[in-house]
Amino acid sequence: MTASDEPSTPTRRRPVLAVVVVVILAVDAILLAWTEMAWLTIRTEGTGFPLPLSALVAAVTTPLLVLAADAAMPRSAALFAPLGTWTLTVVGAGLWSPAGAGVLPPDWRAVLLLAAGVLPALVVGMRRPGRYDPLPPTSGPVRHESGDG
């Protein structure tokens, strides 16, 4: 190994590690989607009223997954990988299964789970500071002109 090979090795490993982290976050999103769908049917004991606490969990966890993906691969579309896998899992498994109907209840709780998972994550993903800068940062020295003359 020569001295010129050493600086390129860490830069080559970092993107691979970032991709692995984003893939793990996407798998975590799938597992969270299944868990949230399973717990969506909880009801109160006394009255039997639906208690969709998993929608609250989705409203907290999907934005966190988006932020984690953005931290792993900043300024890329990878931040939407966990949100996309979560949404596809909820819609796919929630509406269709080999036995017929999916696992989502056919009422307002399914809509609440989808909205609580998707909307906060979209807001967080689109409002990241510096996400869509119109111009790339300059590498040279910054020149400030004063009006004093």
Characterise the protein shown here.
The chain has 149 residues and is mostly helical. It has 4 helices and 2 strands. Strands 1-2 form a two-stranded antiparallel ribbon. Helix 1 runs antiparallel to helix 2, helix 2 runs parallel beside helix 4 and helix 3 packs antiparallel against helix 4. The longest helix is centred in the N-terminal third of the chain and has 31 residues. The protein is elongated. The model has no long low-confidence stretch (mean pLDDT 83).
Helix content: 55-70%
Q: Distance N terminus to C terminus?
A: 55 Å
| Succession of helices and strands | HHHEEH
Uncertain residue ranges? none
> What coarse outline follows from CA principal-axis ratios?
elongated
Provide keyphrases for this structure:
two-stranded antiparallel sheet; 4 helices; elongated; 149 residues; mainly alpha
Would you spell out the secondary-structure blueprint of this structure?
Blueprint: H1 8-38, H2 53-72, H3 81-95, E1 96-97, E2 100-101, H4 108-126
Antiparallel strand pairs: 1-2
Please provide a brief summary of the model.
This protein has 149 residues and is an all-alpha fold.
